[in-house]
Amino acid sequence: MNLTSSQLNKFSMLKLPSAWLCGVRVAAIDDTQCLTTVKHRWINQNPFNSMLWAVQGMAAELSTGAMVIGKIREKKEKISMLVANNNANFSKKAKGKITFECNDGHLIDAAIEKTIATGEGQTFWMKSVGKDEAGDVVSTFNFEWTVKVKG
Predict the structure, then answer these.
(1) What CATH number is given for 5-149 in this structure?
(2) For residue range 31-52, what is the model confidence (pLDDT) as tens digits?
(3) How many distinct helices (H) and strands (E) make up the chain?
(4) What is the distance between the alpha carbons of residues 148 and 151, in angstroms, rounded to a whole number?
(5) Where are the domains of the chain?
(6) Cβ-based neighbour number of residue 128 at 10 Å
(7) How many CB atoms lie within 10 A of CB 102?
(8) Which residue from 46, 139, 136 is spatially nearest to 89, judged by alpha carbons?
(9) How far apart are CA 57 and CA 94, in angstroms?
(10) d(CA 135, CA 48)
(11) Are 34 and 9 a contacting pair, CB within 8 Å?
(12) Using the 8-state DSSP alphabet, how is residue 83 labeled?
């Protein structure tokens, strides 16, 4: 994948300003894995002195969607992408630096190939797990992505 974390962070600043202002950043990306980080700060806190669930969701979604963007760019086809569904589980207050990790990049290729071959939309689920600095899971997000060749 020739998409870098630096390119994605510039993209985020211009196209995802809410995520950027809240501190969501791509730390690393390759064909199968993406890591995003966000630190609990005043701008992204809830009344309970932890990170707002929506900020965690932005970081988690970016850890999945960044790989989808990269793989679509590699194909040089006009393909749309959209989250059709999602769910989340919160297991601990998110304080300090939270790292979201998605290891589901391998699921994207088959869906893109199938939508190119058939012209029909394809869906697939990707999981992102958020951990605090101690390595404890604070939240787990699942996103159902849809990809379709633009007609």
Answers:
(1) 3.10.129.10
(2) 999 999 999 999 999 999 999 9
(3) 4, 6
(4) 9
(5) 5-149
(6) 28
(7) 26
(8) 139
(9) 12
(10) 21
(11) no
(12) E
Residues 6+ apart with CB under 8 A from 37: 24, 25, 27, 59, 97, 98, 99, 100
Q: Which of 38, 141, 142, 126 is nearest to 90 (CA)?
A: 141
Scanning the structure block, which residue is given the tokens 């969501």? 24
Q: Do residues 38 and 51 make contact, with C-beta atoms less than 8 angstroms apart? A: yes
Nearest Cα neighbor of 70 from 17, 1, 139, 145 is 1
Closest CA to 143 of 109, 102, 97: 102
> For 97-122, what is each residue's pLDDT tens digit?
999 999 999 999 999 999 999 999 99
Report the C-alpha gap between 33 and 108 in whole angstroms.
11
Alpha helices per DSSP H over 3-52: 5-15, 17-22
